[in-house]
Amino acid sequence: xxxxxxxxxxxxxxxxxxxxxxxxxxxxxxxxxxxxxxxxxxxxxxxxxxxxxxxxxxxxxxxxxxxxxxxxxxxxxxxxxxxxxxxxxxxxxxxxxxxxxxxxxxxxxxxxxxxxxxxxxxxxxxxxxxxxxxxxxxxxxxxxxxxxxxxxxxxxxxxxxxxxxxxxxxxxxxxxxxxxxxxxxxxxxxxxxxxxxxxxxxxxxxxxxxxxxxxxxxxxxxxxxxxxxxxxxxxxxxxxxxxxxxxxxxxxxxxxxxxxxxxxxxxxxxxxxxxxxxxxxxxxxxxxxxxxxxxxxxxxxxxxxxxxxxxxxxxxxxxxxxxxxxxxxxxxxxxxxxxx
Length: 340
Hints:
Elements: E1 16-19, E2 22-25, E3 42-46, H1 51-62, E4 66-71, E5 80-83, E6 88-89, H2 91-94, E7 99-102, H3 115-138, E8 145-151, E9 162-163, H4 173-183, H5 186-190, E10 194-200, E11 202-204, H6 211-219, E12 232-233, E13 235-237, H7 238-250, E14 256-260, E15 266-267, H8 268-279, H9 289-296, H10 298-304, E16 310-311, H11 314-318, H12 328-339
Parallel strand pairs: 3-4, 3-7, 4-5, 7-8, 8-10, 9-16, 10-14, 11-13
Antiparallel strand pairs: 1-2, 5-6, 12-15
């Protein structure tokens, strides 16, 4: 693990609430700087049926709020309809909403890349975010805050460089996607809405996402490092991902980009060793870079599996957030318990 002193800054204080049997951000005092405080409100969430959105629903409800899904299907119940591809959105349903969390976007790693799929990945984020931000900007009574998704892919492949929110963007495909994704929120910001971007790392959860796919070869005794194993992996436990979003919603002083990653990134070799230990399986069968590129295509393998991103949650820590699962071993144990 890295020696940078910032990697170990995990003990800053913030209150916490129970979220479905685990811990997230507590409601705190209005007068305590850096502590999340949320008045009861309606929070619109796109991508509400996904891994993060589902967990966020429980967190918001525990805090006394109501999650309002924004869905592509025709409006039913409390859900708000939108169709980013068609440029349609129920603006009236957004009037008076307290906050918006934007998580929706085409899956990045669920199929082999080609030009058509890459275009869909970028357009789903750029067009959807633009439609949402422009609509929010025109409301008579818009939300106080928009928390909009992004990813550590913003930084591109950076070797051993320590990456904070002030680091420059990368120049590969996913860096371009994230840059456009974040820029698309501009209309909301210009209208006076507080905007925070969540540059999320690999979310660890046994309920879904990338971890179950990572675990599969280990369960069959075929686990091993990817490529050289020296590439850095920026990860975050699902509980911390959701807690950090609640934290960003509740603190009026927080805007701009935030790395939602553990303060302890690891190399792929370290991740491999930790997964093997957690499953009590060997890690003796590496996957050479050339084999990954052959199976997935060079660009997809390089940007998803061989890329090195050593991101630190500098601004999140500075805001007073305390990680519940800053260490990989603990985070993996929690994730494996979720899947059992």
